[in-house]
């Protein structure tokens, strides 16, 4: 572990809290120390209250903040003396502890304090840092972990056997720390959990963390622990196998999830480890991870058997629980399969990515433990206690109701501009992960977020479509919704001047490409957990063609007929297929200000009147079309297939 302390940066911090922010971020930026909200830090200060009396305050990381990006507002100030008094109680249920923390903060607007606040209060040092350092956890998670920790650190750390986080852990520290600490003590190791460092200054506490973690890293190196061996990475996994696995996960979970496949040399080698069923049988490396990864990974693809075992385990364990518990969904979040590699499930792309990041670290820790003679993690009962701990359950409840398309995947063609781009936004806003295809390379940077994948793709080229689908299944595990939007509208040309080449080009993009897309997507759509949905972007020209648009009108009419046949053929599989017929949508790439002005002049209208040249005298935007396309994929249209809905403000030729 590298020391990133920069005295210049630190000297610009005017207050203890500013320094606390500075060195917390140094901890947070090191992925081998903390991942995704893990770890916490604190500083003890004094301030005058309303009556001019001095009080001691503990500023501790608030929940919901990441150390990497924390700010002063991310710390919760608590009355230190009250916390120390609480620590003397023989017992305190965790909900009561949370209540005590919430009612003894000195700023009403501060975030809820970390549940480790009392522990921070107990350590008699101004600055306290806590991480789940991989190297330390790897050493503690072995059969003789405690002896190894003592060998590495001697009197420099106090060792606390594994204790459930929360008040019990604070009590354990209150009892053991004063007895075992010596003038040399600079840290504390929590077995199967992580490490604390502390000091009189921010720098001392941080550099002690660097020192302590560095010693564990050198210990691993000296005992033959090397970075995992790399097997060569392989091409895309079988698309259908991933989509089938995703459907099974949804069946057991009761809701759809995204499934991201990680097939690096490292993850494949681990998924093919000859002793996998033994080494992956243990729970997470640190209890902090259980809500993300669940207790155990699924080895292979038998999701039903995993869920059955989970239910059984839950029943056994809930018999011993003090209060009745409600079972969480029994579907795994981590799947290890020799062919598919490491697959990570989550209701959002971000959740699935967090699961993947955590499990890739877990692989390193397991393999290090194996090199040291045998990896051991917490017993199942302890992990269960954390998974069903009131405070962890409260976190789940706080995350609220999922978005309508959470866990689902949509593919939009022609997604870089106009109606396609608006469809991407409408679907993202409803919680779907979206794959956007477009000829325009701008598609690749349309949105920088984990739930969007922009791929440059010519939809009229079969090989490009196949490879785009493979990449989207690799990223999200399947396909639930397909928006066929890509199309071309060549300039007006009467039949007597229409060349075969132009006719064929329009047919190739507007019709043939969509047939190929439907054919390629069908095996995925039929595996969609909530049944597949397809929306065709048609045109007003289907019911009301215009002169000079023979190729365009004929292609869209044939496309509409294709939609009707797809609805007939796929209805038995629950796939719904509908079409929209937009007209006069002017906020697209086709319509520049000059073209618009010319068309308006042609009709003797102002641009504003020309835009509203319909029965309702209203302007139709890309967003209007996209919102309806997204709704057609939702429950409102659950009983509708083969519908053709105009989005044109009312057209007297159509009506
Ligand atoms: Zn922790």
Please summarize what this structure is.
With 655 residues, this protein is of the alpha/beta class. 43% of the residues lie in helices and 14% in strands. The protein has 4 domains: 7-222, Class II aldolase/adducin N-terminal domain (L-fuculose-1-phosphate Aldolase, 3-Layer(aba) Sandwich), CATH 3.40.225; 239-397, L-fuculose-1-phosphate Aldolase (3-Layer(aba) Sandwich); 409-585 and 621-645, Rossmann fold (3-Layer(aba) Sandwich); 587-619.
- Number of structural units classed as domains: 4
* Shape, per Cα inertia axes: elongated
Helix residue percentage = 40-55%
Q: SS-based structural class?
A: alpha/beta
Ligand set:
zinc ion
Mean pLDDT: 92
- CATH architecture descriptor of the largest domain: 3-Layer(aba) Sandwich
Q: Tell me what portion of residues adopts beta-strand conformation.
A: 5-15%
Poorly predicted segments: none
For the sheet with most strands, the description reads:
7 strands, mixed
Give me the number of helical elements: 24
Strand neighbour order, sheet with most strands:
3-2-1-4-7-6-5
Oligomer: single chain
CATH topology of the largest domain: L-fuculose-1-phosphate Aldolase
Name the CATH superfamily assignment of the largest domain: Class II aldolase/adducin N-terminal domain
DSSP, total strands: 18
Give the CATH class of the largest domain: Alpha Beta
What does the radius of gyration come to? Answer: 30 Å
What is the end-to-end distance? 72 Å
